[in-house]
């Protein structure tokens, strides 16, 4: 997926269909809106421009896009040596499972969702 596009009223929900929290949050948000574009990292290629745009909308650095709690990632030797923004982006492009999800994108903002009820706190729903 290239740059994040969509109108100001369109929501994009970025999730990983292998994760239970992501699936629960997707079901939860689907109740509130039918204008949701669903982006499953398991079936969508993530591009550098998308990740750069996502980082900007979240207001975080590239290293914060990585799910540092992922046991699979922590077991990789190269994880200990990541230091540059390019290394973090390359990691996510090559291994989309390492992207911290779920994320809800709405307009020019984005929010990490840590539990499905976090969605209630977002004023635009």
TrEMBL record:
This is Arsenate reductase. Gene3D superfamilies: Glutaredoxin. InterPro entries: Thioredoxin-like_sf (IPR036249). The lineage of its organism: Bacteria, Pseudomonadati, Bacteroidota, Cytophagia, Cytophagales. It comes from Imperialibacter roseus. It comes from the Bacteria.
